[in-house]
Design a protein that fits this description.
By secondary structure, this protein is of the alpha/beta class. The protein has helices at residues 9-12, 35-45, 66-77, 90-100, 120-124, 144-161, 177-184, 194-204, 228-250; strands at residues 22-28, 54-59, 80-82, 105-110, 132-138, 172-176, 209-215. The chain is built from nine helices and seven strands, in the order H-E-H-E-H-E-H-E-H-E-H-E-H-H-E-H. Strands 3-2-1-4-6-5-7 form a seven-stranded mixed β-sheet, sandwiched between helices. The chain starts with 8 loop residues before the first helix and ends in a 9-residue tail after the last helix.
Length: 259
């Protein structure tokens, strides 16, 4: 197995000083059909163009052969495999991966072929002066009910927490390492839709947040992270925590970060 090396125009547009390394994190659960292609795409499209970058695969107890595929990349190419003997859940797997990221910027993406990794460069170009850049999913090709839920959820977040938000739970984002370290020291409330909680924590800590439109496709097969049968329970869980989260973020003792 070998990684393709297809440096192109993006490299000629960046000087060596502009090529700040990133830690790429992907959350993975039972993605045997797509994980190899995605790792190859990330390496050729991002890591090979930013020397010193790393890929952390937060694999959460897969049972379909995903773990064995990742092992090949760990052995031969130094991919960091963050995992455990039992399922941690999306939030815990993400938190564990954020803790071990070593570069000044962290790029996080959901998997399953939903995002185009070329859109990473749109976010990367905006990393100054923002501490968090969110990829806003546009021209979505996923199920209609998911688009409705996203719209309704962002509407509730905006009005309940009184902050302007765009696609707060998008699983395609870049954040500064100091922001990641801060939120990893905190106790996260939600098990589901955790990216929206992290977005709120960044905003209430005073970190600047930016937005970039990115493409979003319908994944092949059912959702692994939040299948339809769990959607209602997930939404109920998050809504139940709204008052608690608002109380935490609004408290005078809530620690502010560095913008």
């Amino acid at each position: 197995m070998s990684f393709p090396d297809d440096r192109g125009p993006k490299d000629s547009m960046m000087s060596l000083l502009e090529k700040e390394p990133v830690s790429v994190i992907i959350n993975v659960y039972n993605e045997a059909q797509t994980i190899e292609r995605e790792i190859l795409d990330i390496h050729s499209g991002i890591l090979s163009r930013l020397p010193g970058s790393e890929l952390i695969v937060a694999e959460d107890g897969s049972t379909d052969g995903t773990r064995e595929i990742i092992t090949k990349f760990v052995r031969d190419f130094g991919v960091i495999h963050s995992t455990g003997s039992q399922r941690k859940g999306y939030a815990k797997a993400l938190k564990d991966a954020l803790r071990i990221a070593r570069n000044p910027y962290i790029f996080f993406s959901d998997t399953g072929g939903k995002f185009d990794f070329d859109d990473f460069w749109k976010l990367y170009a905006m990393r100054h002066p923002y501490a968090l850049i969110i990829g806003v999913r546009e021209k979505r090709q996923d199920q209609f009910y998911r688009r409705v839920l996203t719209f309704g959820y962002n509407f509730l977040l905006t009005h309940y927490f009184h902050v302007p938000l765009r696609d707060a739970d998008s699983g395609f984002r870049i954040l500064r390492r100091d922001l990641a370290q801060k939120i990893c020291r905190e106790e996260w409330l939600n098990q589901y839709l955790i990216n929206s909680e992290l977005t709120l924590r960044a905003i209430f800590s005073g970190y600047p947040v930016g937005y970039v439109c990115v493409a979003y496709r319908k994944r092949g097969g059912p959702s692994r992270g939040l299948p339809p049968r769990e959607t209602v329970r997930a939404v109920a869980h998050v809504l139940k925590n709204f008052p608690i989260l608002k109380s935490v973020l609004s408290a005078p003792s809530y620690p502010c970060g560095s913008a």
